Amino acid sequence: MFYEIRRYQIQPGRRDEWVRYMEETVIPFQAEKGMSVTASFVDEEDPDGYVWIRRFEDEQERTALYADVYQSDRWRAELDPKVKSFVLVDQIKVTRVVPTSKSALR
User: Fold this and answer.
1) Is the pTM for the entire model greater than 0.85?
2) Three-state SS at 91
3) pLDDT, position 106
4) All domains of the chain, ordered by start, with CATH?
5) Could you give the strand order of the β-sheet that contains 2-9, starting from the edge strand earlier in sequence?
6) Dist. CA 85–CA 106, nearest whole Å
7) Which of 11, 18, 43, 65 is deepest in the core (most CB within 10 A)?
């Protein structure tokens, strides 16, 4: 099992709007597809920073879920263009982490 920590820079001044879109549209859509979204955060020190975390059982599950989400008609036609209107795509940072044996997130 591993987690994917995704760090985004949002277009200046649009973070509140982004958070609403994530929480009302993107996260529910991905959850419907089987994605496990563990957390969603705003950066306390960066007014345009946003972080979210997803959990995967293994690489096979991640690959299948990515295909189900990102190759879907709805993602391609509706959600992806809207996401790209908010996120500075060239600044996305993704870190994969594995919990230690004593982690509460095991």
Assistant:
1) yes
2) helix
3) 81
4) 2-97 (3.30.70.100)
5) 36-42, 49-56, 2-9, 93-97
6) 35
7) 18
- Specify the 3-state DSSP secondary structure of 78: helix
Higher-confidence residue of 106 and 86: namely 86
pLDDT of residue 43: 98
Q: With contact defined as beta carbons under 8 Å apart, do 36 and 56 qualify?
A: yes
Residue 19 has pLDDT above 90, yes or no: yes
What's the Cα-to-Cα distance from 38 to each of 27, 54, 82, rounded to whole Å?
Answer: 10, 5, 22
Model confidence over 38-91: pLDDT tens digits?
999 999 999 999 999 999 999 999 999 999 999 999 999 999 999 999 999 999
* Dist. CA 31–CA 101, nearest whole Å: 27
Rounded CA-CA distance 21/28 in Å is: 10
Tokens of 68: 């189900």
